[in-house]
Design goal:
The chain has helices at about 10-25, 45-60, 80-85, 100-110, 150-160, 185-190, 205-210, 220-225, 225-240, 245-255, 270-280; strands spanning about 70, 90-95, 115-120, 135-140, 165-175, 215-220, 285-295. The protein has a seven-stranded mixed beta sheet, sandwiched between helices. The chain contains eleven helices and seven strands. The chain folds into two domains: about 10-180 and about 195-225 and about 290-295, Rossmann fold (3-Layer(aba) Sandwich); about 225-280, no CATH class. The protein is α/β, with parallel strands linked by helices. GO terms for molecular function: methyltransferase activity. Pfam families: Methyltransf_11. One of its GO terms (biological process) is methylation. InterPro entries: Erg6_SMT_methyltransf (IPR050447), MeTfrase_dom (IPR020803), Methyltransf_11 (IPR013216), SAM-dependent_MTases_sf (IPR029063).
């Protein structure tokens, strides 16, 4: 099946998040990334599921007091601040979104860690730091906006010291009953300015090409698949009562047809939508997510 993914530019990604980040963070529990649920009986709210996922990434980084961590694609700063507070490490976060950086620095000041946590505007493909500047790096749903994963990994590896760990999450595509993702799914990715997803096994080649050693590839699709349902429902509820930018309208517009192909999702009740989503979630998921952990060889 032929599908058409658009290639996002850093400028377009930054402009997108300038418009939507505060709203998305609000409906996604304060951060701006997927939630992690332990299974279909886990009734955690989005904030709990989101923090659980953040803590899984923090555990993989395993930063220590006095170490320096780079947060690549920091969003409004919640994961980075959480890492700094729990580990005692210093943290520098970057984003292509000016609004991300402003909100993240406000969070660092509000939570009393601005003396060792700061955020700045930068492109992950051209990081404004010298070689070997950081002990570790985290890229939480940010590499998804980059077409060339190897180039992004090489640039992150450049600024990490030998022996340092890099933990990231990325969108993946599985082969479903009818092949890969169809155009409806592709439109959802495009509405978030995401690049084409990759297959999980491609990281077995990406990581060594970037000069790194692969430690882990974990498919967490079945744990994060509830994120779309939560995000759609909460964005829909928010938009009923508040003005939203065109970018949010587009997200809502392309999510609807996922529900068994119906174009009438805007007219369905929340309960009908939940039932529709849950039917989808019982099927094999074509689009997914992985955690990848790698390290720089020690000298």
């Amino acid at each position: 099946m032929s599908v058409d993914y658009k290639v996002p530019t850093p400028e377009a990604v930054g402009a997108f998040y300038d418009q939507v980040n505060a709203i998305v963070a609000k409906v996604q529990g304060g951060a701006m990334h997927y939630g992690y649920w332990t299974g279909p009986d886990d009734d955690s709210d989005f904030e709990t599921a989101s923090d659980r996922f953040t803590d899984m990434m923090i555990e993989r980084i395993d930063a220590r007091p006095g170490q320096r961590v780079l947060d690549v694609g920091c969003g409004p700063g919640r994961p980075g601040v959480r890492l700094a507070k729990s580990s005692g490490a210093e943290l520098v976060g970057i984003s292509v979104s000016e609004q991300d950086v402003r909100l993240a620095n406000e969070r660092a000041r509000a939570e009393g860690v601005s003396d060792r946590v700061r955020f700045e505007q930068a492109n992950m493909l051209a990081l404004p730091f010298p070689d070997n500047s950081f002990d570790h790096a985290m890229a939480f749903e940010s590499i998804v906006h980059v077409q060339d994963r190897v180039a992004a990994l090489r640039e992150i590896a450049r600024v990490v010291r030998p022996g340092g760990r890099i933990a990231l999450t990325d969108f993946t595509v599985r082969e479903g009953p009818e092949g890969g993702a169809d155009q409806t799914v592709v439109n959802v990715y495009d509405s978030w300015h995401s690049a084409a997803p990759v297959k999980a096994e491609e990281y077995e080649a990406f990581v060594p090409q970037a000069g790194l050693v692969l430690d882990e590839i974990t498919d967490i699709t079945d744990n994060v698949k509830y994120t779309g349902m939560w995000t759609y429902l909460e964005l829909r509820r928010y938009a009923r009562e508040n003005p939203v930018p065109p970018e949010v309208d587009k997200i809502l517009g392309v999510f609807g047809p996922l529900l068994n192909g119906t174009e009438g999702a805007p007219g369905l009740t929340d309960e009908q939508l939940v039932q529709g989503w849950r039917r989808l979630l019982t099927k094999e998921q074509v689009q997914g997510m992985i955690i990848v952990v790698a390290h720089l060889p020690a000298d």
